[in-house]
Amino acid sequence: MRAFDAGWGGAVWKTIGEPITNVSSRYSSIDWNAQRMMGLNNIELISDRPIEVNLREITEVKRRYPKHAVIASLMVESKRETWHEIVKRAEGAGADGLELNFGCPHGMSERGMGSAVGQVPEYAQMITEWVKEAARTPVLVKLTPNISDIRVVARAAKRAKADGLSAINTINSITGIDLDTFEPRPNVDGKSSHGGYCGPAVKPIALNMVQQVNSDMVDGPPIPMSGIGGVSNWRDAAEFILMGCGTVQVCTAAMHYGYRIVEDMIDGLSNWMDEKGFVTIDDFRGKSLAKVTEWKHLNLNYRIVAQIDQALCIGCQLCHIACWDGAHQCIHLDRVTGPVDGHVEVHAKPREVGREQIVVTPIPKLDPPTVHVGPYPTTLERIPRVDETECVGCNLCSLVCPVDLCITMVERPTGLAPETWADRTSATVERAG
Amino acid sequence: MSEVESTFVGHPEVAARFPDLHPAFDARAAVIEANRCLNCFDAPCMGACPTHIDVPRFIKKIASGNVSGSAKTILEANVLGASCSRACPVEVLCEGSCVMHGKNEKPIEIGRLQRFAMETYYGAGGTVQLRDRKERRERVACIGAGPASLACAAELRQLGFQVTAFDRRALPGGLNTYGVAEYKLRAADSLREVAMVRGLGVEFENKEIDPTGLEDLEREFDAVFLGLGLGAMHRLAVDGAMSSCVIDALDFIAGYKTGTRLNVPPRVVVVGAGNTAIDAACAAKRLGAQSVTILYRRRRDNISAFQFEYDHAVREGVTFCWEALPKAFSTTGNGVALTCVAVSQDDAAIPVPVAGSEFTIECDAVIPAIGQSPLLELLSQARHVTLERGRVVIDRATGQTTNPRYFAGGDCVNGGREVVDAVADGKRAALGIAAWLSKRTEAHVG
């Protein structure tokens, strides 16, 4: 109810089933560069509170917030009657829809539930069919990413006439190990167990899986999708919607910062929509799906190269070392300041760091500050040079460059007509034929 | 000399009046700051450091939680890494060259990160470790036990040579112990570093080497390193008897740092506007002076103190009197009257007094801080060692003087610069001495 007061449109009530006993110490996380919780891992199971308590509270919430959507997330043992019963009870309590938790990757799966179901398309289809027999409200099937091809379970759900999907559930994970005790985290009395990974770190994986499912035409056109996986702000939400999602679900970010984050999610998204001239979500939903294709349909004759804006370069030379040690050795430190204006093509290996020259502390009165001369704020010899003939347009330098817009990738038209790998191989086949 | 550095305890009142100017990083803040570092390739900060500490390397070790590795990286380049992290004018060195300036961001706080690494390491009982190498028989004498000699001696020990450092003062460490403002570097911290160097096997002797002593040294030692710094401070050329109210700045600073001079009269005039003058003026203020005035014969933009030192003095409440020259003392009922004369610059090399412009400043103490004179008497006895304008002439790359057995570095060579410059000199000279001795030994054997 506090979430609804904060502005959230709906909630998925996770996860109702026969109450379980949880362990103490349940979460662990990955920090990155001093930022907390880039990824979160949990070994919590479903609700530890009785079914009737959860349902009574759903009724109470729906009474007070009739316009907000409450989806009951369900997980019970794989028996037709048991599923029929829980569906009826949840709907009787006032749930607006049902989400079948076929994704929980830890604990529940050992008991034949959660991802144990979601990893076997036949089981997923069977249980979804049972649910659909009893359900009067929309049924979403929540997909697990812990499977080699997420589309097979999505197809099973489609065959079972599910009303929609939600993806992704958490990813199997061990976040780290305490290097003093050798115990992985989270620590439950000296031992740990794999958990489910979520948070900002998983967003790229989720976006890919959502795209795969939403572009899949096998067993019928895509059905509605609720996007999940590292959604932390309006930009993430916009991305999932562009990949075809009708709604997004947020958990880790709200656990990290509280329900208040929805304010900027709403504000940021509507400002962006205004800027783009979108009135409803449907104006841009799925817009990026057409822009994802298989690799074989990419234009092999498109060429870009890195361009360094010398006026912005601060001389950190990260592009140079990244290109040398991690890419195509085409960014050089071979420029000299002085009579030779411009670069000298020496193509030397990066020199070893270490300096022989004698440097002293400048004293203001004795050592007037060295006046920098040159066309750019950084001295010419510190500004790397891109050898365009060798640059393959990989983007790495522009990714490592710490200055916005300093390295851009610019097109160098090849003058060749677009040609894809598919074109090329079919042409070969034709010739061979 | 006993291991005096382990028994020295700073005076509690000094500790109270001279708390750290820059607060230390706590572990979390250090990691956050370390993560800001871009990890430049061929980093300019490393180039700007006279001892060429591999800055990105030690910073990224802090980020990864490898603090002892970080401290060892620093020590590899600079055995006085702890004191340099506190005493270095980083604004004009590493931090001044940080590429962050180029994107209008605060430079990485390299000095504070270095201090974090060093203090965490030493705080956990870490020491400077001896490299795996063979002991050598050749003996080297270091005259003076300040930063230049400490760096030279430590490096020589790392190369296997036998080293004795001689110093005329009770406590080794030179100006690191006696001369750096306490809110930057505590005497106790300097002495901890001395203990590290002693731990490497350097012998310390509390002995003033007089001109005749040099001959003995030459007999006993294969090479001599002159790291003796500068001599007494210049005296004021002022009419009137040398007043008992006059205390030279270095004596004043050494006095409070060792806890022997804790009282300062209410009105103090400091003459000169270098970094030592600022240190003395700020110290006088912290020790209780009500008014501290810095008297300088030139203008504001001619001072030799760093900008940040000037700013600091202003914040401490020190006032400045520009373009004025002290002329005469006279004793008054309470204190002294310092007669000054205004000078005109007119782009002349030497400011010219303006006739009739005399004025008087009433004060209780005068602290001249107008530079130190070279130790000419001793230096002139070092045979065949050439001096130029009172400074020892060396080959910059090896520290070798015109007498091949003598090497030199630090203030006696550069006329008075920073700790880090002395360390760089000392280390270069150690390598120079090692190369020279090895060559000589080979020649003998051959």
Summarize the structure.
With 433 residues, chain A is an alpha/beta fold. Chain A folds into two domains: 2-291, Alpha-Beta Barrel (TIM Barrel), CATH 3.20.20; 296-433, Alpha-Beta Plaits (2-Layer Sandwich).
What does this structure look like?
The complex is a heterodimer of chains A (433) and B (446). In chain A, helix 3 (80-92) packs across helix 5, helix 5 runs parallel beside helix 6 (150-159) and helix 8 packs across helix 10. Chain A has two domains: 2-291, Alpha-Beta Barrel (TIM Barrel), CATH 3.20.20.70; 296-433, 2-Layer Sandwich (Alpha-Beta Plaits), CATH 3.30.70.20. Chain A has 433 residues and is an alpha/beta fold. Chain A has a seven-stranded parallel beta sheet. A four-stranded antiparallel beta sheet of chain A has the order 2-3-9-8, with no helix packed on it. Chain A has 13 helices and 17 strands. In chain A, 36% of the residues are buried. The radius of gyration of chain A is 28 Å and the shape is globular. Chain B has 446 residues and is α/β, with parallel strands linked by helices. Chain B has three domains: 18-123, Alpha-helical ferredoxin (Fumarate Reductase Iron-sulfur Protein, Chain B, domain 2); 139-231 and 373-445, 3-Layer(bba) Sandwich (FAD/NAD(P)-binding domain), CATH 3.50.50.60; 249-368, FAD/NAD(P)-binding domain (3-Layer(bba) Sandwich), CATH 3.50.50. Chain B is 38% helix and 15% strand. Chain B is built from 18 helices and 15 strands. In chain B, the strands form four sheets. In chain B, strands 3-2-1-4-15 form a five-stranded parallel beta sheet, with helices on both faces. A four-stranded parallel beta sheet of chain B has the order 7-6-5-12, covered by helices on one side. The longest helix of chain B has 27 residues, at 419-445. The mean pLDDT of chain B is 93. The chains are: A alpha/beta (433), B alpha/beta (446). The A-B interface holds A 33-34, 313-318, 320-321, 333, 350-351, 353-355, 357-366, 377-378, 382, 402-403 and B 28, 31-32, 35, 38-44, 46-50, 52, 54, 63, 88-89, 92-93, 99-103, 302-307, 396-397, 414, 417-418, 420-421, 424, 428.
